[in-house]
Amino acid sequence: MVPKSLPSYFLNHEKRVEVVVTGIGLVSALGSLSTSWRSLIGGEVGIAWHQPFPELPPYPLGLIDSQPGEFSAIAEKVVRAAIADAGLSLPLPDCGVAIGSSRSCQGLWEQFPLPNSPWLETLPNRGAIVAARTIATRAPVLAPMAACATGLWAIARGAELIRMGECDRVLAGAVEMPITPLTLTGFERMGALAKTGCYPFDRQREGLVLGEGGGILVLESQELAQKRGATCYGKILGFGATADGYHLSAPELEGKSAAIAIKDAIERSNLTLDDIDYIHAHGTSTRLNDRNEANLIGHLFPENVPLSSTKGATGHTLGASGALGVAFCLLALKHQVLPPCTGLQVPEFDLNFIREARSANINNTLCLSFGFGGQNTVLVMGND
User: Fold this and answer.
1) Residue 316 a catalytic site member
2) Is 148 designated active site?
3) In the annotation, is 299 catalytic?
4) Which residue is catalytic, options 105, 148, 167, 367?
């Protein structure tokens, strides 16, 4: 029996505090929040050939600029964008922080001795500390790390801070700048890197494409948001998290723990599987992950549920990928548009993949993330 991953107040739908999203800061290989959404809906791709390191061959990569970016600068940029989008001004001394990263300043560590930066400014909690300093907070500051599941875990922890009454407002999400020699070489040695591009769930998929990016949400109690007249993208309804306890990098083949995480998230949202109108899949474009995820979705959900992965457009931003996925789910709710599974040409699986963006009646969305070590995370969002 897998224990419940969150406290009982997530199950008490009559008394729990409602958590809404009032701001989003995002940057990806497609651009800012508005540019990324517009490009995604238009079927554009932010992946291109780059050779950022002369000692390594060129790869298809999702770079924000022409060269790999600096982690702290991107983290601050995304935090400030989220605050501006929420209509807030600095300082925010009572705002909590839950911002994670699976690699943080690894790019600087690979340049050891560290160039122009004290080592204390390159620790794994760097994104959370950048945010805390930017807003001058005295509230709780968390820095979750859960491989590719980091973004969803951080957002869930942020919502938990609000529901526990520790904060009325939290900055939550993840930032990742993973394009480094070690990361590229590591995935290459695993045989997981694509040779030409990212094609989630396609018969000819080759592997993942690394991408840079960050997604930060401004979470607030519904009471606070209403009091200040804030516009909301949607609600954080429920979260599920389990671990396979199976393998360092491969998912458990039967997907039992992943299925429990999905069912927990649905139950905590006071919904049923039939209530989900769109699934943002993890969809890394690797042979094993896409097959396992497709089988999981096909086994649990109605056969007509629309789904897509946006990694074919942005690349795989690792720890930040779930945060980007949540942002795209919230924009789908706001605009009532389903984003396409960019890169998918010939599906290998009999599922309702979104091939081109289209309008739809969307009330509830679900985002999936699966991380190394068998970490399964699921977040459900709904209309405010």
Assistant:
1) yes
2) yes
3) no
4) 148
